[in-house]
């Protein structure tokens, strides 16, 4: 189960101080930079991101309802890549994204905590990209089972997990298509917390297991940037295989696919109309906490699970004034175990609104906050870049 950890940079009263600290010192010839944009003199982190040496601690606000309100520290370094000459000859190619290196440590109100390291980068001369990630997670989460007499029952689980992830992709020719391999490893122990459910409802190996999952993927990505896209398309399909052959305690296949479409409308892209479709399906024996769940703002992770889930969502971003934008979104999805039960499964919806501020113009990076309503509760989310993270 993936946790959305979104970032909020503290840009309040410390801005004046930071502007003095990093202002250009031409008298002594020192290398410094400013947190004011050279074009409009607004607060802007582009030069800070480009020129900062080493890892810079970034405050993080965790607002995912599944783990509760919390905070973290995330040392992050972004390295903007020089665009290769072949982009001039192949103008339809998407730009090379920056390399991102970072770590994190977090703690939340549910006493969930964790720490990890990750990197995403490119090897331009080989036309390859890669992602690598490893962490330790101690999570307190709620799940749901439907019992014959009692109906839907909530139960709490403590999950301790060591996940590791590696992905390698290679560009196909000089196109926006790429294909690759990926691998997921997890060592997981789980314990029921204050549950009235009998142990017989759970397989013993669900409480202590190893998952070893190789996979293949194909992807098309022609978005104008990876942080807050304003136009373009991303299409992704992957297949992942958990098997005793690879050292896993479970045998199952996980298929996943999604598409994002961004359409700019009006003068200077005043309005960005975005659409998203997502579908996952599992065949075989999968632990209950790895089963796919609906990923919509306003719905806690893991709330609606099924062997099959599908959703659609739209987000409308209206650039109101200068660097400020208003966001409106709505989505709906279903989670079910068999296609024969599609009609019986309910539609789960969410809707909401928010705002964005152009925090780093040279990266087209926006940040802001959303408030969303799902079928059962409200959710508040701090967004650093796009809300669609895959």
At a glance:
The chain has 390 residues and is mainly beta.
Overview of the molecule:
With 390 residues, the chain is mainly beta. It has three helices and 16 strands. A 16-stranded antiparallel beta sheet has the order 1-2-3-4-5-6-7-8-9-10-11-12-13-14-15-16. Strand 1 (56-62) and strand 2 form a beta hairpin. The longest helix has 9 residues, at 14-22. Residues 1-31 have low confidence and may be disordered.
The sequence of SSEs as H and E is HHEEHEEEEEEEEEEEEEE
Q: Beta-sheet strand percentage?
A: over 45%
| Nearest-integer average pLDDT | 86
The N- and C-terminal alpha carbons lie at a distance of 13 Å
- Low-pLDDT stretches are 1-31
């Amino acid at each position: 189960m993936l946790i959305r950890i979104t970032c909020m940079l503290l840009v309040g009263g410390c801005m004046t101080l930071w502007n003095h600290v990093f202002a250009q010192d031409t008298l002594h010839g020192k290398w410094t930079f400013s947190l004011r944009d050279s074009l409009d003199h607004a607060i802007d982190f582009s030069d800070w991101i480009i020129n900062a040496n080493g890892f810079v601690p970034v405050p993080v606000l965790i607002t995912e309802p599944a783990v509760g309100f919390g905070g973290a520290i995330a040392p992050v370094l972004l390295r903007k890549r020089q665009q290769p000459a072949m982009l001039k000859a192949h103008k339809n190619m998407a730009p090379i994204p920056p390399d991102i290196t970072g770590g994190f440590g977090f703690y939340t109100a549910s006493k969930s905590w964790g720490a990890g390291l990750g990197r995403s980068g490119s090897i331009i001369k080989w036309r390859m990209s890669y992602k690598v990630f490893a962490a330790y997670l101690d999570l307190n989460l709620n799940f749901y089972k439907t019992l014959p007499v009692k109906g839907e029952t909530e139960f709490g689980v403590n999950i301790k997990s060591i996940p590791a992830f590696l992905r390698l992709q290679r560009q196909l020719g000089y196109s926006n298509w790429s294909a690759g391999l990926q691998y997921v490893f997890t060592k997981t122990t789980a314990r029921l917390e204050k549950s009235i459910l009998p142990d017989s409802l759970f397989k013993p190996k669900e409480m202590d297991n190893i998952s070893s999952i190789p996979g293949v993927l194909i992807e098309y990505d022609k978005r104008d940037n990876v942080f807050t896209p304003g136009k373009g398309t991303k299409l992704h399909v992957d297949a992942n295989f958990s098997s005793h052959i690879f050292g896993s305690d479970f045998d199952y296949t996980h298929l996943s696919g999604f598409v994002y479409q961004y359409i700019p409308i009006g003068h200077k892209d005043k309005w960005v109309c975005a659409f998203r479709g997502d579908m996952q399906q599992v065949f075989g024996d999968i632990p209950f906490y790895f089963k796919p769940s609906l990923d919509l703002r306003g719905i806690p992770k893991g709330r609606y699970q099924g062997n099959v889930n599908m959703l659609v969502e739209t987000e409308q971003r209206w650039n109101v004034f200068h660097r400020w934008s208003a966001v409106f979104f709505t989505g709906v999805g279903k989670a079910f175990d068999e296609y024969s039960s599609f009609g019986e499964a309910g539609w789960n919806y969410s809707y909401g609104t928010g705002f964005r501020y152009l925090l780093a113009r040279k990266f087209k990076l926006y940040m802001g906050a959303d408030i969303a309503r799902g079928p059962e509760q409200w959710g508040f989310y701090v967004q650093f870049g796009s809300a669609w993270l895959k």
